[in-house]
Design goal:
Blueprint (H helix, E strand, L loop, with lengths): L8 E9 L3 E10 L9 E4 L6 H24 L6 E9 L3 H12 L4 E10 L2 E9 L2 H10 L2 E6 L2 E6 L7
Parallel strand pairs: 4-8
Antiparallel strand pairs: 1-2, 2-3, 4-6, 5-6, 7-8
């Protein structure tokens, strides 16, 4: 369902009913995910109609997801970082599009070219917040940042093969 909606992430919620409570497990599915959401215990008094019990579970799950979203998306602007990323580029147009996309990312404060060779470029990306937040912002711009054996790579999200 998430892919049909072109969603960048989704939440799976599992409810385990018990006699006087419901255990709620929530899993966040995304390219970058923050801290896991703790299991919830929603008390349900005896003889409570199932509609009312599941409504309480839905409210508790929604509040937990909202709280995790707030924590995950809060950018600490005092935390400044820089990383070097390699990028495969086949054409000048592809390079220009990548730079244009990088410039639209609100957490990126500076991009500088460190080295360029046939088909590959190395860029220094200065940003605020965490690497996960940077990756999430890049994903909204159509770029993916990943670490392979200690080396950061930047690619278009629609690129089929990673180096």
């Amino acid at each position: 369902m998430a892919s049909r909606m072109h969603a960048a992430d989704a939440y799976l919620v599992l409810v385990i009913p018990q006699k006087t409570q419901m255990i709620v497990k929530i899993r966040h599915l995304a390219a970058t995910s923050g801290a896991p959401i703790q299991d919830l215990v929603v008390p349900v008094p005896p003889h409570t109609p199932s509609e009312k019990g599941f409504a309480a579970v839905a409210d508790a799950a929604a509040n937990a997801i909202i709280d995790s979203w707030k924590v995950r998306s809060a950018v600490d602007f005092s935390k400044r970082s820089k990383l070097l990323a390699e990028m495969h580029v086949n054409t000048l147009e592809e390079w220009a599009q990548a730079i244009e996309k990088l410039e639209t990312v609100s957490t990126v404060t500076e991009v500088s070219v460190v080295a360029m060779n046939f088909g590959e470029a190395r860029v220094a990306i200065s940003y605020v917040g965490s690497t996960d937040q940077l990756n999430e912002q890049l994903a909204h711009s159509g770029l993916t940042l990943f670490n392979e054996n200690g080396q950061w790579w930047l690619s278009r999200s629609d690129a089929e093969a990673r180096p």
